[in-house]
């Protein structure tokens, strides 16, 4: 019996299908990695913006004076980044209290808003 022996290995179609599957898996992994990186950057921005906003609100509390009604724009540098902080003070129905909002943005893109009520000392 001298029959023909089947050749070992893969056909071209099988190799192309395997390459296609690997390419799809690598693309999905790349997208997941990019999403994780973006989320980490966003969390870092929120943390730094929170520090800026909280600093402005605490500064008003520690001044022991009723803040004046109006808006003010300030700069804040945290973690080698520069943020814009808009502090808005509005009256409340009770004249002994004022509402204070600190809005933090990065080049016009809003990141975070913190609010508090400050009372007369």
Task: Give a structural overview.
The protein has 121 residues and is of the alpha+beta class. The protein is built from 1 helix and 4 strands. The chain has one helix at 12-62, and strands at residues 70-78, 81-91, 97-106, 109-119.
* Secondary structure tally: strands: 4
Beta-strand level of the residues, as a percent range?
A: 25-35%
Number of helices: 1
Distance between the termini: 107 Å
The biggest sheet, with number of strands, parallel, antiparallel or mixed sense and barrel status, is:
4 strands, antiparallel
- Whole-angstrom Rg: 29 Å
Write out the strand line-up for the largest beta sheet, numbering strands in chain order. 1-2-3-4
Q: What are the segments in which pLDDT stays under 50 over at least 5 consecutive residues?
A: none
- Globally, the shape reads rod-shaped
* Secondary-structure element pattern, one letter each: HEEEE
**Global structural class:** alpha+beta
Question: Can you give the mean pLDDT?
Answer: 91
Helical residue percent band: 40-55%
